[in-house]
Amino acid sequence: MTEFSIKDWYKAGRGKRSENLAKKYYYDKFSRMATNIYKLKLPFNLDGNLVEKYLWAEGSAMCVKHPIVGWCVCKTQPTAWDFNGMAKKFRPVFDQNYTGVDLSNYEFSIDDPNCIIFYDTCDPEIKRNMALFLIDDIVDVRETIRQQIFNQKTPLMAVTGNTKTRSKVKASIIDIAQNTNVLFLDEDIGNTIKPLNLNAPFNIEKLHAHRIYLENEIMMYLGIDSTDAPMKKERMLVDEVEGNDEILNYLLADGLKARQKAIDKFIAMGENANVEIQDIIRPIMEFEEGVEYDNRDDE
User: Fold this and answer.
1) What is the structure's pLDDT at 142?
2) How far, rounded to the nearest angstrom, does the alpha carbon of residue 175 sit from its chain's CA centroid?
């Protein structure tokens, strides 16, 4: 199985500076969404936000009573597996070691009450961050839009005979041309240059719609309802609304069930712990009274 790593994907990206910045922008944008879908309440002053950070980036997280630092949140490194290929022993991995002692020099069994393992989904091999695969397509569409906008600002070309004439022409163009690039050529080479044909199709509206579609696809994979309730009520058929809601419910429930398994272990210890979906994730659609919503296509 080929592992997908956010760090490898982000660091390996090569290209223009604008493309790399755009990838970082979209990565940050969707990371902020993904880490605020579920709300964890954990005992022992454990940071639920840190758990969500590791679940998004790594697919798993560990809450462990460490012999040196006590209860803490950290990343996991499986060290043993059962006959089904499921991890059964783990080594804690810390972002920073401030004790001077090797904190990872300990192993915890999944049956150890001092070791609570969180998974991002019910299948440990499936990670929600796989949705970031579509960021490359989003950036590609964005750069295409940028190129089409640039084509609308094709530099003006001025052919002049000498330096004195060039200064006069330049002064005249500056007076009338704003936010426009001007290319000045000497008369002896002006006849040998042909303007580039930049009359490419101008379809920014379609490209913009496709970019929005890709962004919505990522949000749907995360379980986020990207469709405004008024738009649902006015434009979507009932079957479309219900079908979209079912998909979102399945995806949200998958992450919720995975987290609930870990929460149940805290509860079994007699501790107060809880996980729930943020209310803002699924906007409630209110139908107007006295309005009939047809389930059929318009004839």
Assistant:
1) 92
2) 45
